Amino acid sequence: MNDSPHAGADVLADTVTQTHAVLHARLRSAEASRPTRDRPRAALSAADPFLASTSRHVAAANAVLAPAARRHLDQGHRRAQELALQSKRLEIALSQLKAKLYGSTFVVRRPWAGIWEEVERELAATRTLELQLVDDLVAATDADQRSELAEHLYRTERRVPTRPHPYLPHRGLSGRLARRIALQVDRFWDTAEGRMVPEPVRPHRGREGRIAQYLLADPHFRG
To answer: What pLDDT is recorded for position 35?
Structure first.
């Protein structure tokens, strides 16, 4: 994966780039995990952090980056709509993965290879679109505005749904209300299931060892 040209020089671009690096690493960990006799839930335990962190980031990007695009960019409304549509495609793929992990009869005939391929494709497309959006925001805003956006993204990511909800509204007032309701439902089930929800990537100007710190702090990550 090629980094954004602004990554390492700008806190917003750096935060989004690092977030996608962490998501990609968690995806690889989930793909590599297989259940065993001693650990029958190994695949679920490895995939849950990926599902939770990716679902959170998708929701936060639509809550923070999309409005920023509408405020600061030419054709910002079109760019926000593109993000919402791509987010829905990724969330549909995540929903298929979640259904397969939990044994849903609706996806029982779908092979694992096809599910992982779809998730990888839509995650990569989301990353490309987000980094292009961030590059344009870097060019259109000042450093203080971007620092504020990065902090807002982090704070929002801690209070949005932890599961994919592809058919809920992604934008505007209806999107905010839908996320608020979905968050309460997701928190209930996360608590009931003892589900591990990782901490989002926090904005930080120093890059040394940041990605490794996040991965090593995740008890479900296995290289």
So the answer is: 56
Going 134 to 154 to 198 to 60, the CA torsion angle's sign is negative
What is the C-alpha to C-alpha distance for residues 126 and 196, in angstroms, rounded to an integer? 24
pLDDT at 205: 62
Identify the pLDDT of residue 9: 56
Angle CA 145–150–154, to nearest 5: 145
Can you give the pLDDT at residue 184? 87
Q: Which amino acid is at 5?
A: P
DSSP 105: G
For the chain, which residues score pLDDT lower than 70? 1-9, 34-42, 205-223
Question: DSSP letter at 7?
Answer: B
Evaluate whether 172 touches 38 at the Cβ level (below 8 Å).
no
Calpha distance 60→54 (Å, rounded): 10
Residues 6+ apart with CB under 8 A from 101: 43, 44, 47
Query: Residue 13: which residues within 8 A CB-CB, separation 6 or more?
Result: 4, 6, 7, 131, 134, 135, 138, 146
pLDDT at 45: 77
What amino acid occupies position 18? Q
| Residue 31 tokens, joined | 């793909």
Q: What is the rounded CA–CA span in Å between residue 186 and residue 95?
A: 14
Instruction: Name the burial class of residue 53, with classes exposed (0-12), middle (13-18) and buried (19+) by CB atoms within 10 angstroms of its CB.
Output: buried
